[in-house]
Amino acid sequence: MKNILFLLIGIVFGLALTKGEAVSWYRMQEMFHFQSFHMYGIFMTAIPVAAISILFIRRFGIRSIDGEAITIPEKKFHRGIIVGGLIFGFGWALTGACPGPLYALLGGGYSVTLITFAAAVAGTWVYARLQPRLTR
Amino acid sequence: MYKPWPWYVAGALIGLTVPLLLLSGNKKLGVSSTLRQICAACVPAGIPFLQYDWKKDSWNLFFVVGIVIGGFLGGVVFRNPLPVAITSETISMLANQGVTVDATLIPHELFNWSSLTTLRGFLIIVVGGFLVGFGTRYAQGCTSGHGIMGIASLQWPSLVATVSFFIGGIIVSYWVLPFILSL
Fold first, then answer.
1. Is A61 exposed, middle or buried (0-12, 13-18, 19+ CB in 10 A)?
2. pLDDT bracket for residue B170 (50, 70, 90)
3. Nearest C-alpha of chain B: how many angstroms from A102?
4. What ipTM was predicted for this assembly?
5. How many Å lie between the alpha carbon of B53 and the closest alpha carbon of chain A?
6. pLDDT tens, B110-152?
7. CB B67 to CB A125 under 8 A?
């Protein structure tokens, strides 16, 4: 039943990405060339809204709807943060899409995104294959 | 509904998905992990990194199906009939690189099935997609998991990751993409 809730939240997320044009290849080139505030405005609204919500949840010890304590695991630094981050950045500028927008574009009827998506799955699989060597 | 939303509306809703996911089941916003889920479910091939109980995390598969539906609503049902309103500066820059702005969210002349047979299209679609999947897993997150969730929960590695995403993107957008587009 709860999965319906995750699906609904996904709909809001996908709709906001699409109507905010955060899925647009054009917007990404504009962003990387600092030619418009639009994409930065999205980040600079989304991050504080999320941060204040988290602060609120922590401050008042708010629990999830089934009473579970809310925990946020620590993200640890490793070289993949930088190396993997750069590699993702390269792909982001080429495809104009990060993983969220890839899903949204699939729904948006851009059928060739199926190939971009399949290539991303393949990239993840190759990473998995090399993971013991890369994280040593 | 047909018009694009201003950045503060889209941004606020994107930000709100973070507390909504936390409150609905202590879930952390993140999309790229679903690519690993798909690998683990479909082609685990005995790889240690893919040997885990992916069904335990299947909530995020429902979440991304939602994103697909949201993309359908925003991109098809309430489709904006006008071109993306990028600045004239970007329009002329792209025109110099041989890309015209059409009335879709991504340029059709680059992203179509026959473009896959050209070197240019192959590099942008296939190699680009591969780098997205490889890089996000190596960095253990993408724009949502690090850029929004990680930074909003004040984790410095996520800030380093997000800065790396942008440096990578800027390098390619400035110096590599113009060359690929000229192929």
1. exposed
2. very high
3. 9
4. 0.97
5. 15
6. 999 999 999 999 999 999 999 999 999 999 999 999 999 999 9
7. no
